[in-house]
Amino acid sequence: MKIHQMAPTPNCLRVSLFLAEAGLEVPRQEVNIREGENLSPEFRRLSANGLVPVLELDDGTTLCESLAICRYFDAIGPTGLFGHTPLEQGLVEMWTRLVEHQGLIPAFQAFRNLTGVYADRETCVEAWGQESKSRLYAFLPKLESRLAQATYLAGDRFSVADITAWTLLAFMARAGFDLDQDYPNIARWRARVASRPAFQ
């Protein structure tokens, strides 16, 4: 098997961190999406959404969407990163989706529409970029509040929800979206996560 990726992208980073936490090594093949390699007919046959990452199995079966890839590896060798008890699993799912829908997606939309990085293949709308950026910053106090109540997003144990939140904040830094104020609980959580071997 192998993973087709562009390593610095948020969704590829999420899979890489998940695999590192699980102690798994999977061969990688880089795909230059900036140059449009993912637009080729060959790549389109691999990826249902035309994006990275894509897990290609030995029999030719492929999986795209980063969380689906993480779930596949968790199913073949449970990692605990999706939770242990029914309540934990529900909280992990809830916080993962909240970070995705209220954080990552607005961050992606803000970046793409404000920078025009993919203007050669999509319509960029500056007003939507500004609105998305506002929605991203509106989510941060929710994250701060949750981390005042819990060690990790889903409770006392580290999970894929934390990997997703780490990915969001890493992308914000690379995209030039600095935190708009001091968030001490987010800062403490980031230091805790950064000390994990998988994040070194």
From TrEMBL:
Residues 85-200 form the GST C-terminal domain. Residues 1-81 form the GST N-terminal domain. GO terms for molecular function: transferase activity. PROSITE patterns: GST_CTER, GST_NTER. Gene3D superfamilies: 1.20.1050.10, Glutaredoxin (3.40.30.10). Pfam families: GST_C, GST_N_2. Transmembrane segments: none annotated. Coiled coil: none annotated. Keywords: Transferase. The keyword Kinase does not apply. PANTHER family: GLUTATHIONE S-TRANSFERASE-RELATED, HYPOTHETICAL GLUTATHIONE S-TRANSFERASE LIKE PROTEIN. This is Glutathione S-transferase.
